[in-house]
Design goal:
Number of strands: 16
Strand content: 35-45%
Bound molecules: copper (II) ion
Order of helices and strands: HEHEEEEEEEEEEEEEEE
Distance between the termini: 56 Å
CATH architecture of the largest domain: Sandwich
Number of helices: 2
Helix content: 10-25%
CATH class of the largest domain: Mainly Beta
Oligomer: single chain
CATH topology of the largest domain: Immunoglobulin-like
Amino acid sequence: MKIPMSRSIVLLPILLLAVMVAGAEAATIKGTVEGGKRLKRSPAVVYLAEVAGEFTPPAKNPVMDQHNMTFIPHVLPVRTGTTVDFLNSDEVKHNIFSPDHEKYNLGTWPRGEIKQHTFAKQGVYTQLCNVHPEMQGFIVVLDTPYFVLTDEDGNFEMKDVPPGNYTIKAWHEKLHFDKEQVTLTEAGVDNLALKSRKSR
Ligand SMILES: [Cu+2]
């Protein structure tokens, strides 16, 4: 669409101002979850609890692939309302089902096909394949836009968070973490530590 010259002259400063305001308000929370070697095998999901806000579906659906007899990624965090594309990239047929919450079985399908599921409720959904019982993955559905995966040393960096008071939590398939309260200013938070309770 072509915007008339006169209108773009008016719009441009408004857009720049909007970008500057958004930039000034956003801060970063950096920290670490405790968990040692278990975090090298699978990441934790760090998230802000009970944060309301508008839901805008992602431009592209997140993908849970099945490749080399493995769910990829092993852990996929998404916002409530998101549709996930389930792909099969193997020569063999795979199935996907979850025994959790509303439960689903998407059927069994060959390479290259995609099935979908829309996650309406917050929670952890174990992903299983009834053809290959050793396969396991997790989709973590969250009522917040603020979530991030840890790296293999347990470090995380949550960007673009508006300053405020939050409860920060973490989920891991084998570990439990204490929640923490965090007061975020524009300066950001640099070294938040989430301590692990006993492992499951
Ligand atoms: Cu399978």
